[in-house]
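User: Can you fold this complex?
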Amino acid sequence: MDQTLNITRTAGKTKEVAMTKAKKRKKISSADLAFRICNGLFMIIFVVVTLYPVLNTLAVSLNDGTDALRGGIYLWPRVFTWKNYETVLSKDNLITGAVVTVARTVIGTALALVTNAILAFIVSRKDFIFAKQVSLFWVITMYVNGGLIPTFLLFKSLGLTNSFAVYVIPGMLSAFNMLVIRTYMRGIPDSLEESAQLDGAGYTTIFLKIISPLCKPVYATVALFVAVGQWNSWFDAMLYNRMASQYTTLQYELMKLLSSVSNQSSSAEAMKNAGEGSVTPTSVRAAATIITMLPIICIYPFLQKYFVTGLTLGGVKE
Amino acid sequence: MTKKSITMADFKRQRVLIVWAVAIVIYGVIFHYLPLCGWLMAFQNYKPVTGLLHSEFVGLDKFKLLFSDATFIRVIRNTLAMGVINLVSTFVMAILFAILLNEMAFKGGKKVVQTISYLPHFLSWIIVTGILHDALSGTGIINTLLLHFGVIDQAINFFAHEKYFWPIVAFANVWKETGWNAIIYLAAITSIDPSLYEAAAIDGAGRWAKIKNVTLPGIKPTIMILLLMNVGNVLNAGFEIQYLLGNGLVQNVSQTIDIYVLKWGISQGDYSIGTAAGIFKSLVSIILIVFFNHIAKKHGEERLF
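Assistant: Here's the predicted assembly.
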């Protein structure tokens, strides 16, 4: 009698425990669901905030300029036209800017890649007698620099103002890029180099035939960093080549368009009277902006793995 | 290891390396070390005609002049304020974004969100400020939304009021760099040992407990080292956007040390004052880096050098 009672009691308890457990699990999963919904919402808002300005610029660039002044254009053009793009492509200064920008990106990236690779190769040779000193010499430049005015005066006295060279020579070597490549090169097994040395290969052969082919991923990373920097820079064009319109860049021209827009927004009324189907500084700038960002938007999604590697390697410093 | 182990044979065998090293060091001396000689200008009454060698030496007069200039004091305040606000907001957002993205269950969506999040990093400040001008203009999306929901009854001219400038700059930095800065945290989260999460789950840890007790401690070293690297750069964080967005109405809060240097040095041609301001900035940056490195060392955290 006592025993049966005990058994039923235990069974009841087990049931109770099982029930509260089930309740708990349900509670957790509903909290989990709430979290997932909130997280999803956060991500959607994040994506909208990131993409909207770009899509809006695209819509404005494809819309009639005068009509766009009325506002109310969000994601889709109201009065569709290619005229803004035609205007951009017929402006000599923007064409010159585009040519110079492409040239500085290609030449600057090639120069930076070759010199940084050579420097990284030198300082990553374990047996090189000056490896440490050369390394330190560059790392110091990361923390100490002369500043704007001494640099400006130096470039002036070197004849680098009003020249194309100012875009590609002074910033060619950078301690950060060197460190990224060096870290990668240090990860390559020594045995490869040693066996090549036994076969009589000199340093040049080892660099070109053994190390460089293995470094393709890190070279791609550094090339991407440099290329984006070259494509986007405008301050050097303004500071050093203000007087040399043949060396203007796309970003600098875009900046001039931006300031003309800020100045003319007050004369919007005057623009309205300019007649139907005209372009405005705002709409032309939108078109120029889209043209400027298009190459980067098309390329970067395919290079993701390279910049992720680069950032992780860049974190390792000495 | 020691000097005597270097022989003539070493020199001969490594002559290619030495030739390249010499060429690269000469380049470095010209473009990175020679400008440091220009610091002399800050202690002179520098005149381009007399040059660096024959200009009158004035000691610390230029620095005294600099610190008696109320504009310069205001410029330091602006640089520090924007530097700190930007540092904190971009840091918090990047960590938050990385953790939330990591918690996303839908893998395909995760990849898409991440790819989109990098986009603004690749746009120049020229483009970003253009976008900001559009979004914040009288007919822009922000004013339209605020008017629509009745928050305001008249469009705000965001660029004409001092109180909006710092928040706009902070927002622009967050918009541009959150996805990019999150990369390194996501890499750090990926390298956390999965068995730690399993152990936490067995102990009955929920999602929040796992984030708090496993994810955050796991990325703490990364957070510390990035914080160190960026604290030293706090004074460097203020040029492009402030220069591009600033205007006469907000110049009291928009001008930074770099803009001051540019204005005095290049536009007004007072190289001595400009250089003195630049030196001040460099010295403070180096002190900040060394100081925070020291603190990190004391607390046994990761450090820069």
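The two ends of chain B are 21 Å apart (CA to CA). The beta strands of chain B are 44-45, 56-57.
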